Amino acid sequence: MIFDCVAAQTKPTFENVIVPIAMQENEACADICLVSLLQFVSEDKAIRKASANANKQIDQHRTELYTREDTYMAVQAVYNNMAEMPELEDEDKRLVRLYERRFRNHGLGLDNEKRKRLATILNRLTELEVRFMCNINENDSKVMFTREELKGLSSAFFETCESIVDDGVEKVVVAANQSNYFSVLGQVKRPETRKRMYAAYKTVCPDNVLMLQEAIRLRLEKAQLLGYKTHADFVLGDQMAKTPDNVLAMLENLESKMKPMLQYRFEELEIIKKAEMKYANKPYDGFYSWDISYYSNLNHQLEYEYDIDKVKEYFPIKHTIETLLGVIQKMLGVRIIKADGVSVWHSDVEAYEVWEKGEPKFVGHFYLDLYARKGKYGSATMMSIRAGYQKLDKSREYPAAVLLAGFAKSTPSTPTLLDHDDLETFMHEMGHVFHELCSLTKWSRFHGTRVEHDFSEAPSQMLENWCWEPSVLACISSHYETGCKIPSELVQTMVTARNDNALVDRMSNIFYSLYDMAIHNTTNAADIDVVELYNAMRRDISLYNDGDLYTFGVATVDHYMDGYDAKYYSYLWSEIYSADMFGSRFLKEGLDKKQTGMDYRKEILQPGASRDPMLSLELFLGRKPNSDAFLRLLSPDLQVGI
């Protein structure tokens, strides 16, 4: 066993201690990723369960390995070797520091009793996190409505739903999942229907509440065993933000500037609802959480005079995906080739090869698993299948990644049509995919998206900007019936309306981030009621009003239990950097400038986590990053600093 050999070294060096551990990690990476993937994509419940159990066992085994004191002593000897350490390459030095911290954070340096308690905590946290995610994946809650109650939805929506006869009345069975939730709340005219759908979706997975409650207590206990004040202090030490105070300063500054603007925004939407109720001769009963999306969309139509559903008609999924891949090819200087005859886990999955443009140099593989199916993870996400790394013989292991989404499948009468949010989501996740594929690191641990969490979203967020460029929208559009390009006037209206709902989205993100800090930057987690605090902060920050409903939406916020604990702020933090990269280089120099894309690959994507991301940013920008471009997207009056 590798760890036995490492521990037996009488003269520990980088080559006989760190390299064997890193090579084992390299070689195990693909197997672990594939085992984990199955719980998110398999139609077979038994396989999903086996995958989740295997993932739990892998994490527990990893915990056992990194609590071996004999191995830690060897790693520490290398870490403290002032003759060898200065001579190592920068990526190798970074690896030594990472392993030393990893062992220390598993309790090495604690007495035996505390170490045993820490191991118990780590194993229990793994179990809770796996079960939490499984509950979300396995959620099969449904709501039944008549077609009249669902008035406002397109015919394509009904083609994806089952119909049954209930007490002599035909009912549409609507799964209480994220995709249907957004459709119903954004398009259905009847407030009673929106309220029922809201209540159904916000009360799924009740068992997850107790799991999160237990997890925040265990995380605090773990952090304090290791000598940290709070769990947030423990997590942020190796992030760009460094401390909870820095995170809170950024979030609270944004909140103070944006909250009055959000209040005004909701007052505008409330006026529309009052007018609609008066016109329908119905009593006005208030402005609620389930009204926000519907009246935001209606306001879009009234103020900007365009129908979101009409926009979708120009983006049939097959054509749109093909042309978006073409945009990425051009930007990054690569060739994307459909790989037919490749073994995949479902017939919906498409495999692709990526090569350097103009030369026979392979880059990696990616897979698109775009359509919803029973048992599959419902949200859009990128998952690594295999990290790239340098083998001992200096050849490379090539990376592979998959983009998962939950789009409805095409029907005989209508192809799957993507709204603009879908375009942004696809490009966002492809930003992650190509961060994985274009990375060139020595060690798998530093490959691609394995950067600091508060930088990991920057490359994906930056790619979203292409969806707002008129030339790109014209290029990727093709009306599903006529093949016509989207009218330039409609594009201009969309671009003008771009930030119409930005306040709602950003304030929701601020809320999720501040709540994350509230439950993880505390010294007394036992006194926190995760639902009561969640609902209270949501009312105060996001200004959501649930009326007489009791909900526990926190039960489906997966990021609190999938590795983003105390790091939810990273979306906003990264967005500041992504806006700077796009505005200062791509927008200024031109989207078609080849050198800009190659500089981006070289300085941002290629290094992965092998160096400090601040250095990568400075090399790409030619200066220290700032928030100017981010502020211009929101409002010229906002002033924010990191």
Individual helix count:
26
Question: What is the subunit arrangement here?
Answer: single chain
Beta strand count: 10
Mean pLDDT: 93
What value does the Rg take, in angstroms? 25 Å
| Share of residues in strands | 5-15%
State the strand order across the main sheet.
4-5-6-10-7
Structural category: alpha+beta
Span between N and C termini? 46 Å
What spatial form do the alpha-carbon principal axes imply? globular
The level of helicity is 55-70%
Largest sheet, described in full? 5 strands, mixed
List low-pLDDT spans: none
In words, what does this structure look like?
With 642 residues, the protein is of the alpha+beta class. 55% of the residues lie in helices and 9% in strands. The protein has 26 helices and 10 strands. It has helices at residues 2-7, 14-41, 45-65, 69-79, 90-105, 112-138, 155-159, 178-187, 191-201, 207-225, 231-236, 244-279, 292-304, 308-312, 317-332, 420-438, 453-456, 458-464, 470-476, 488-496, 502-520, 530-542, 570-589, 594-605, 613-621, 628-634; strands spanning 142-145, 162-166, 169-175, 334-338, 350-356, 362-371, 381-386, 389-390, 396-397, 400-407. A hairpin with a 2-residue loop joins strand 2 and strand 3 (169-175). The longest helix is centred in the middle third of the chain and has 36 residues, at 244-279. The protein is globular and about 85 Å long. The two termini are 46 Å apart. The mean pLDDT is 93.
